[in-house]
């Protein structure tokens, strides 16, 4: 993406400050020019489509209004690595890529595709973000990625009416959650809707259980493959997850139906016109589907409780996110860097926060900018977690293991959902796939 300038024109300093450090990029600029990037176009690639792309465009439009730059967004689909790699090879590299996986960010950096973030962006990150976000955006001590959008993946969403009718309170422990699920089932509604058709949702289930049960040090070691997947802690977590999968009372339609349910379908089973379950586990983005597709009022018809503590551990906070990185081969990399500097500011985050379907890891963003109390509570939980947040483990892994449909961890956990009878065998299969992917 954008190439960092090592020297800034002193005549632009005041202007840069006035523009929230988005000025002085891309071509000759006079000190009195209030649209310093006029005539330049910044190309941005990312996985977003639909409402996410529409809302991100509002952020890009705000950047354009501030700087005069035009923007062009290119949706890559899920396979960001392949699409961006082919664009670089074809001489058509975007300036900025919104990278959804730590493993892909590391891969891009190791291939020499990325420009380190500017001093301005780095100082904004230092001032506004918990150090853990800088850690996940860095490779070998160099900061390449700015985490603009975050996901809170430790939220269990439920129908308040369903729980109230069953006389169930929101649980504080994992065992209490399963007990509440049985009470729901006895009242005629399955406990959980599980999106087994999408393997990534199953990795999220495992990660929350593992982080709470095994603790953050082992979580970090397993994420980096310093700990083997055959470790007893992995088998224990799989056994805990398997007890949920085995229980016919707890999963809507049983394991077979779960394997044929994708993520939007899992939300529909709880918040659609004909509910089959009272709860669905997934990230804060469940709220967007419940609201936009099924007309639910967040906080009234749909609410969440934090993923509860497992086996005497601490309640987990697992996150994901999209990091803005700058490609060296982008045609307008300098202007792209100015976009990343803007994305680091609370002003940029506020644009999408107001539109909904968004969480920011920027602790300088006023929580009042979010549109509803539930989103504010989710955002506060993420910010308050500070450095105890752990990034989605599968997103830290090489894509061949943690991010490929029908392969690696996604497929093996789907197989485990299909037959959860042998956690040790599944752990061995996971280790074999991980060893191959990390070696590659």
TrEMBL record:
Q: Name one Pfam family in it.
A: SBP_bac_1
Entry's InterPro entries? Bact_solute-bd_prot1, SBP
The signal peptide stretch is: 1-23
Record key words, sorted: Signal, Transport
What family, per the record? Belongs to the bacterial solute-binding protein 1 family.
Descriptive protein name: Carbohydrate ABC transporter substrate-binding protein
């Amino acid at each position: 993406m954008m190439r960092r300038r090592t020297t800034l024109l002193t005549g632009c300093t005041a202007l840069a400050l006035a523009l929230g450090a988005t000025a002085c990029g891309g071509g000759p600029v006079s000190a009195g020019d209030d649209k310093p990037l006029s005539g330049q176009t910044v190309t941005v690639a990312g996985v977003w489509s639909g409402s996410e792309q529409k809302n991100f465009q509002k952020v890009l439009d705000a950047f354009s209004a501030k700087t005069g730059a035009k923007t062009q967004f290119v949706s890559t689909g899920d396979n960001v690595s392949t699409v961006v790699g082919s664009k670089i090879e074809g001489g058509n590299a975007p300036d900025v890529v919104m990278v959804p996986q730590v493993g892909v960010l590391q891969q891009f950096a190791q291939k020499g595709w990325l420009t380190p973030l500017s001093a301005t962006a780095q100082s904004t990150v230092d001032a506004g973000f918990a150090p853990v976000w800088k850690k996940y955006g860095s490779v070998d001590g160099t900061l390449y990625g700015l985490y603009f959008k975050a996901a809170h993946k430790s939220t269990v969403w439920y129908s308040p009416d369903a729980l109230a009718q069953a006389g169930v309170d929101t649980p504080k422990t994992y065992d209490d959650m399963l007990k509440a699920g049985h009470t729901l089932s006895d009242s005629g509604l399955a406990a959980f809707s599980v999106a087994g058709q999408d393997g990534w949702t199953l990795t999220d289930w495992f990660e929350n259980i593992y982080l709470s049960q095994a603790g953050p040090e082992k979580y970090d070691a397993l994420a980096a493959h310093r700990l083997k997947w055959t470790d007893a802690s992995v088998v224990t977590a799989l056994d805990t997850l398997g007890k949920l999968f085995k229980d016919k009372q707890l999963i809507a339609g049983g394991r077979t139906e779960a394997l044929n349910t994708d993520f939007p379908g899992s939300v529909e089973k709880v918040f659609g016109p004909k509910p089959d379950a009272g709860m669905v586990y997934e990230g804060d983005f469940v709220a967007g589907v419940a609201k936009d597709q099924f007309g639910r009022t967040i906080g009234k018809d749909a609410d969440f409780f934090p993923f509860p503590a497992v086996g005497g551990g601490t309640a987990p906070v697992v996150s994901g996110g999209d990091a803005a990185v700058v490609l060296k081969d982008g045609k307008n990399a300098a202007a792209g860097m100015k976009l990343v500097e803007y994305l680091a500011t609370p002003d940029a985050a506020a644009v999408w926060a107001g539109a909904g379907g968004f969480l920011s890891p920027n602790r300088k963003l006023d929580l009042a900018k979010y549109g509803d109390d539930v989103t504010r509570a989710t955002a506060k939980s993420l910010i308050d977690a500070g450095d105890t947040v752990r990034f989605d483990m599968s997103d830290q892994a090489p894509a061949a293991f943690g991010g490929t449909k029908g392969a690696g961890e996604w497929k093996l956990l789907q197989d485990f959902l299909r037959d959860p009878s042998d956690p040790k065998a599944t752990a061995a299969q996971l280790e074999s796939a991980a060893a191959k992917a990390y070696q590659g």
